[in-house]
Design brief:
The complex is a heterodimer of chains A (about 230) and B (about 55). Chain A is mainly α and about 230 residues long. Chain A has 7 helices and no strands. Chain A is globular and about 55 Å long. The mean pLDDT of chain B is about 80. Classes of the chains: A mainly alpha (about 230), B mainly alpha (about 55).
Amino acid sequence: MASRDFRTASVASLSAMETNKVLKNTYLLLSATLGFSAVMAVLSMSMVDANSAGSVYMMSLLASIVLGMFVLPRTANSGAGLGVIFLVTGLLGFGVGPVVGMYMSAVNGPQVVATALGGTAAIFLGLSAYAVSSKRDFSFMGGFAMVGLFVVIGAMIANIFLQIPLLSLGLSAGIILLMSALILMQTSAIVRGGETNYIMATYSLYLSFFNIFISLLHILGVAGGDD
Amino acid sequence: MALAAGVLMLVAIWPRLKHWRENKVEAQPGDWSNALFVLGLVMLFVLLLVMSVQ
């Protein structure tokens, strides 16, 4: 009886160690990829002019999405996955650099960009800390997030033709909510052992961070006097 | 352009959401109120940031 209890305790502690390892590796890789993106963004700010910022952003975005959707899942269990995740996040950083540069050149721009970055970091850290400390399973929000995603994509496509500024702001707020739910779900999946691949976990958290930053930048850009 | 980029970014999230949708658990009593409270706090924080740059 005592031997069985000991074995159960050993399995539980091994599982907890594995979970802690995935969590630690995920946050280490996330920090590294965010740092790499920042370097690529600074590089692209000095290389790309404002006129071609939009096309560079779209091309980088397309390339990174294709890599993230089709190449990363196939390489995530090997060392090559690390190279692919740095490529994906580097491309996203390179694409967003000129867009951030445009915001920086506006009146009040540096304050808006700094507030968006600080705000994104605060939201991310707050939600992660809550998910880790509460140990709740947030996967019940999967249906809500999926419906939310459909609604936001539908409204975004509609607004490409309608061009309603207020709807655009509302959509940015909706994306922040959706990505916040995603951070809770992904972090709780790692903590509860549902996610064992730290490369895929990093990709998911990175996309949430990136989307919150872009949406916050949009909202604060409008509120700060620059659209 | 920004909206099209936004749509593309959300499409990138799709496989992860599909995975969670297929492996979701039923919510326990109090789960939704907790989650909505946290998301409400995020929205309040965003409002605070908006006020700080105005």
